Amino acid sequence: MVARIGVPGAVGAFLGATVLSRLSTEVAKPVMSAILLGLGVYVLVRFTFRGLPAGWLGRPLRRRFLAPLGLVAGFLDATGGGGWGPVGTPALLASGRMEPRKVIGSIDTSEFLVAVSAGLGFLFSLGSQGIDAMWAAAFLIGGLVAAPLAAWLVRLLPPRVLGSAVGGVIVVTNARTLLTSDVLYVALYALWAAALAYSVRAHLKERNATAAESAEERQPVGT
Fold it and tell me: pTM score, two decimals?
């Protein structure tokens, strides 16, 4: 999975960095936000109300799906300052063929290839000017602290709840670019909280039903 999506992603990131070095992306920013917002809404609604489709889970994803996805996500990541996770994660989650924790782990691992390729693209096109070493160090330190904690947390959360959480993060992050009203933005957070609460209740209901079925199966015949 990492190789099939990471290598095309590296190609797309290098191309995106090269293109961005010659273009302004101010016009593209709201368009990208709208695309990511749509993907986030889809993931949020799907996992909140449907959870994981058990019939699909575990089926391998084909290269003809992963390669174009990696190419586009890598390009958007380099041109928009971020897009690998917001594009790749919801697309893989929406397929329903991998658990959310495995999707996030695969996307995060393959992002190393994308970051290196994008960095090389910018260095070849622009040189080292414009790079703030203090900013880079601050992001690096924060990421090193947060990433292991997030990876540990992903293992513990149920897939349905995790899918709703990821979808909500994508929605509220990209909605900020498009919404001008703070009231609407607060209402969006409230809707996300309600969706998470619904996912938790649905997960507990499914878990209790599964436990009851297991208890009935273990009960001796005739008792």
Answer: 0.68
